[in-house]
Amino acid sequence: MDKKIELDLDAVVAECRLTEDTEEDILIKNIDNLESIYDGKNLVAIYNKFLTVAKSPNILMYLIRCVDKYRDKSSLSSLLDLLFDKKNSDGVRVMCAKVIANLKDTSAVTSLLYCLNDKEENYKVRLACADALGRIGDKYAVAPLINVVQDEDEKSVYVRESAAVALGMLGDARAVDPLVSILETKKGFVDKFTFLKERIIEALGKLNLSSDRVFNALEHALCDESHLIRINAIEALMESEDERAYGLIKKMLEDLHEEVRKNALIALYNMVGRDILDEIISGEYDQSLKIEAQAMIEEYETGEEEP
To answer: Helix 123-136 and helix 142-150: axis angle, to 10°?
Structure first.
């Protein structure tokens, strides 16, 4: 018989006792048993229905994971309803955003932007929506994400960070100038903008390192008072193919912060190999660098000896 024609979703809800006061482990067992009865298409329809009637956060989370296994776009409507319903737990709504991203359905972009731009919304949900926008990959989200990153009145710097990361994922050159502008205006010691600058540097590394303005911004970041920013700039320059990057990173071997020196050494090793390690050991460099270089050589040689 064609189960698709005979499928009675309300009857399946009743059979699984989803709306009753049933222990969660029993409900999960009932949900699992459906896989031996129905094919994939019908299972998706059942899960979508269950998402509209289940109340327990744990059961909803379980159902969302079930939906994610199939990643059928017919689930989008139910997932969006859960996302927008503020009566649901933050965990449920965050997971909804993640699964929506996995659907790669561009029709969800407007809804995700609405949640992201709602400053009264829970910040964890907003972070998840920003990430989803980046992973879906629709360039329509570029301009709104730029607005979020630039918004000085945004009370959550974490949201701005997530928007910067999303712009890096989208890889649209329109984000370069706004991101560089923020770097240029947020110079200074470790503060609440440090992580924002880190995310911006990471995004710039994915966007357009061939741009002189980007390269200059990363060069200036090497002088930032935050050692974390300097480390991020080193990593971004390492990934570039600009011949000037090697010389800039090599200067960082003289940085006052040990972690910066160590990261500069690792970056140079990734760029040119063992030669830089030999140079460090025989040259006039900080003793901690010599020890690190020797340790890297020993690790390198051990790796070579293994079959």
So the answer is: 140
3-state DSSP helix/strand/coil % of the chain, to nearest 5: 75, 0, 25
- Report d(CA 171, CA 175) in Å as an integer: 8
What is the end-to-end Cα distance of the chain in Å, rounded?
58
CA distances for 73 relative to 55, 105, 135, angstroms: 23, 7, 16
Continuous segment of H or E residues that includes residue 152: none
Closest CA to 135 of 104, 173, 160: 104
Q: What is the mean pLDDT of residues 269-292?
A: 93
Question: In the prediction, which pLDDT does 205 show?
Answer: 81
Check residue 1 and give its pLDDT.
34
Q: What is the pLDDT of residue 306?
A: 46
Q: pTM of the predicted model, to two decimals?
A: 0.82
Amino acid sitting at position 145: L
Note the pLDDT of residue 82: 97
* Contact predicate 246/278, CB 8 Å: no
pLDDT band, residue 191 (cuts 50/70/90): low
Residue partners of 234: CB distance under 8 A and separation at least 6: 222, 249, 252, 260, 263, 264, 267
